[in-house]
Amino acid sequence: MQITLNYTYNQDQLKRAYRFNVFPTPRAKFFLLFFSCVIFGVGGVCWLWKPASINPLLLTALKNMMLAACLIWVSVLLAVALNYFYLPVYAFEKSPFFKGNFTVSLTTEGLAYHQQILEENNKSETDGFVKWTAFTKKAENDEFIVLFMGRKHSVLPKGSFTSAVELEEFRLFLMEQKHIKTKKFNGTEVWINN
Question: What is the pTM of this model?
Fold first, then answer.
């Protein structure tokens, strides 16, 4: 296999890639909304509930536990919102990993990349090679194939493949790599099986 990809990220594309990582399936948004409704619903009921016969100390403890659960969930929602809305914009503007022109060669040995960045009369180039054994997980949606190395990831836009045959060849190659597991969300593989 010898496939060469040429691409440049734009801000909208990078936003969609980050958002795919935060919400890999439509069910992810549903679960976030569902648990938010449950936690805040139970919290509201606990705070508004006036039982006739319950120990006041127990009622206060229950209210405080639900308040703590709601505050923790608010911090989770803020972290998700930060990752969903702010982080992609910040990464595009500040991170050198997503700037410039990329030339990626996909071979049977690994992924070789060349990154060329031009900024206000500054030109920098970076070369690298990653063996397939370094990748541990893969994920795919209609626009990207994402390869994970621990917490780091490489995002390959599907539009950068010159033909559907090349894309299918690469997908089949990835499926043959048994050490690269398909990323799962709630027991569902995040991979398009045609």
Answer: 0.77
